[in-house]
Design a protein that fits this description.
The strands form 2 sheets. The chain has a two-stranded antiparallel ribbon with strand order 1-2. It has a two-stranded antiparallel ribbon with strand order 3-4. The chain starts with 18 loop residues before the first strand and ends with a helix. It is 45% helix and 7% strand. Among the domains are: 57 residues, no CATH class; 70 residues, no CATH class. The chain is built from 10 helices and 4 strands. By secondary structure, the chain is mostly helical. It is elongated, with a radius of gyration of 19 Å.
Length: 207
């Protein structure tokens, strides 16, 4: 394991998020969690006297909820992909659904298009968004769905990390899926709040 990678999520340590050093007591908790997860990291934790990881990963790795989610995914044979191998990712600069980077002037450019052609980017404003999205992709084994699970599993507060998403990406999640997933409409109140925020920003920019 490279010293520049977090041994819990396998992503780069230098991704802009808070880091911490875990010592003897914390390592023992990791050993217990790894034993439950059967992820093969027990030996690593036993050989180290301290280890540097993401703060968010430290919090999530040992929780019963996170362990249960990991075991469920393993039972469904859905491999977890390394973001550090495929591409760099940050909730603040990328769409958490498609994983693509969002230009800083994205919405300003989109506003130039006809209303029905705009693919606006919205910030997550409710904690429930994470669970709603995970419920939509549960059981799917396509690359997009697996990427969403990989990005969301370590992070439980999307509001705190300024997570954002493309409107079209969110709409796509609600379309009928061949595995019979439920369909519906995206969370309208979040979109309305985001549209209001964007409109206010554009008006202030023109003044």
């Amino acid at each position: 394991m490279s010293r520049r990678e977090c041994c819990l999520c396998d992503d780069l340590l230098e991704d802009g998020t808070e880091l911490c050093v875990v010592k003897e007591k914390g390592l023992q908790s990791f050993i217990e969690a790894s034993t439950k997860r059967k992820d093969g990291k027990v030996k690593l934790f036993k050989e180290r006297t301290e280890i540097q990881v993401h703060v968010r990963c430290r919090k999530n790795y040992t929780t019963e909820r996170s362990v249960a989610a990991y075991l469920k995914r393993a039972a469904q044979h859905i491999p977890k992909k390394k973001r550090s191998i495929t591409r760099e990712f940050s909730f603040k600069t990328h769409c958490f659904i498609c994983g693509n980077q969002v230009a800083t002037d994205h919405n300003q450019q989109q506003i130039k298009n006809p209303p029905n052609k705009r693919n606006m980017v919205y910030n997550v404003t409710t904690l429930s968004m994470r669970e709603k999205v995970l419920s939509l992709v549960a059981g799917r084994q396509d690359e997009l769905s697996q990427g969403i699970v990989t990005r969301l599993e370590p992070e439980h507060d999307l509001v705190a990390v300024d997570a954002q998403y493309h409107r079209d990406c969110m709409k796509a999640l609600y379309r009928p899926h061949r595995q019979g997933l439920p369909t519906g409409r995206p969370v309208d109140n979040e979109m309305e709040a985001a549209i209001h925020s964007i409109t206010t920003f554009l008006k202030n920019s023109d003044e």
